[in-house]
Amino acid sequence: MTNAESRTVLRILDANANRAGEGLRTLEESARFILDDLCLTDCLKTHRHDLAVAMGRWNRLQLIDSRDTPGDVGTQVTTASEQSRADLSAVIAAATTRTQQALRCLEEYGKTSDPAFAARIESIRYQCYATFRELELKMAGSNTRSRKLRDARLYALIACEPNADRLEARIAELADAQVDVIQLRDPSVDDRTLFEQARIGAAIAKQREVLWIINDRADIAVAADADGVHVGQEEVPVDALRGVMGRERLIGLSTHDIEQVHAAARTTADYIGCGPTFPGKTKSFDHFPGCVFLKQVSDAEQTGELALPAFAIGGIGLDNVEQVSQAGIGRVAVTGALASHEGLRQTASTMREILERVPFRLTADSEAVGSVLER
Ligand SMILES: Cc1ncc(COP(=O)(O)OP(=O)(O)O)c(N)n1
Ligand SMILES: Cc1nc(C(=O)O)sc1CCOP(=O)(O)O
Ligand SMILES: [Mg+2]
After folding, report:
1. Which of 63, 227, 266, 324 has the greatest number of beta carbons closer than 10 A?
2. Which residues keep their CB under 5 angstroms from ion ligand 3?
3. How many C-beta atoms surround the C-beta of residue 310 within 10 A?
4. What cofactor is needed (predicted)?
5. d(Cα 155, Cα 149) in Å, to the nearest integer?
6. Which ligand is nearest to the Cα of residue 216, counting in written order?
7. Separation of CA 36 from chain center
8. Who contacts 102 (Cβ-Cβ below 8 Å, separation ≥6)?
């Protein structure tokens, strides 16, 4: 190669090393601040470090000297798609593509001067493919969960079953009845049993595309790979649990008055349960905030003070779901109403029909992205 050609190669290597480094840093921020994923953050940092080490083969001053940003015709060429990103996943998709392309350029042009350098970059590129795959799937997973939750109308709370087959059948019948979310709530079983049912249920719920939430136990929810956890007012605070659950899993919080609802809105909770609405057989209460409370929650949704999906809970069934929807709440969480196999589909479908009279205010993707950004 002539001196001029060598200088051009250096110029290309310098530009693409910067591009790949910036892309990796962009992705590292998403693993760290969006997904809260220590392992992925660490992998991306390692790729950035490996790239810097590989680039150490070139003389830094010569690389910088070859740089000619004002004379670079490429800086004038921009496309409309570069100027905006639809959401956080689009930021990540653009950064992965840019990084992969930059690594390929480093490899190809590096081959002209140093095949060993090119081989090192090739190895980094392959490692990046695996990391990027995981990152994009995790992002898709977290978005899917929030989206499913926002579209949810029917949430069923179930107890453990005597064995895996019975649990599978129970989840299947609820999924067939178009139940959107299932919570495993069983204060009567030991930790091992709860974990086993949580784990088996998580796999079945995933297949059936139903959200799978574990009551009270964040540790079991994570260990079992559930979609989330539900906690009450006297349990570990939501923001403290966020560190355990990560950004991608859901956290639900029980609320019993409007002050608790406003407080929940200031946490990283993904949804709230609001009740008890009516007396029921599953759990006894001394006080019933009832439909007056539900109306306050609905008003808070209307004014935009509350942007979290709110599920009315407590003694709700076919006989009174209309009162819930008239209070302006279009989502319910129930145990007793969906406990019986008989007429399950019909009950669920009638309840859904009544709840669907309440339009959602939280379906826009932009709002979902907004809440992720605020965290
Ligand atoms: C959806 C939903 N809402 C409320 C509750 C009640 O949670 P909590 O107050 O923690 O009471 P227990 O369920 O733990 O007895 C819930 N589980 N789910
Ligand atoms: C577990 C629970 N928590 C409630 C609350 O208001 O926080 S009401 C409730 C029981 C829900 O079951 P059912 O639909 O059978 O009444
Ligand atoms: Mg609880």
Report:
1. 324
2. 216, 232
3. 23
4. Mg(2+)
5. 10
6. 3
7. 11
8. 16, 17, 19, 20, 23
How many CA atoms are closer than 13 Å to the CA of 366, on its beta-carbon side? 3
- Give me ligand 1 centre to Cα 172, in Å: 23
Query: Please, what is the Cα angle at 9 between 8 and 14, to 5 degrees?
Result: 100
Residue 366: what pLDDT?
36
Asked if 312 and 337 touch (Cβ cutoff 8 Å), the reply is no
Task: Name the CATH superfamily, with its identifier, for domain 152-374.
Answer: Aldolase class I (3.20.20.70)
Nearest by Cα to 103 from 2, 34, 27: 27
Task: Please give the class, per CATH, of domain 3-67+82-144.
Answer: mainly alpha
Q: Note the Cα 64 to chain centre separation in Å.
A: 41
Contact assessment for residue 306 and residue 359, using Cβ atoms and an 8 Å cutoff: no
300 CA → ligand 2 middle, Å: 22
Which regions of the chain carry the CATH code 1.20.1260?
Answer: 3-67+82-144
351 C-beta neighbours (distance < 10 Å), count: 26
Asked whether residue 196 is marked as a ligand-binding residue, the answer is no
| pLDDT digits 0-9 by tens, 142-155 | 778 988 999 999 99
| Among 324, 346, 327, 347, residue whose Cα is nearest residue 335 | 347
pLDDT, tens only, 215-226: 999 999 999 999
Segments of the chain assigned to CATH 3.20.20.70 = 152-374
User: Does the annotation flag 320 for ligand binding?
Assistant: no
Ligand 3 mean position, distance from CA 271 (Å): 14
Q: Is 22 annotated as a binding residue?
A: no
C-alpha span between 161 and 169 (Å, rounded): 10
Question: Residue 318, class by beta-carbon neighbours within 10 Å (0-12 exposed, 13-18 middle, 19+ buried)?
Answer: middle
- Tokens encoding 7: 């200088």
Residue 365, pLDDT > 50, answer no
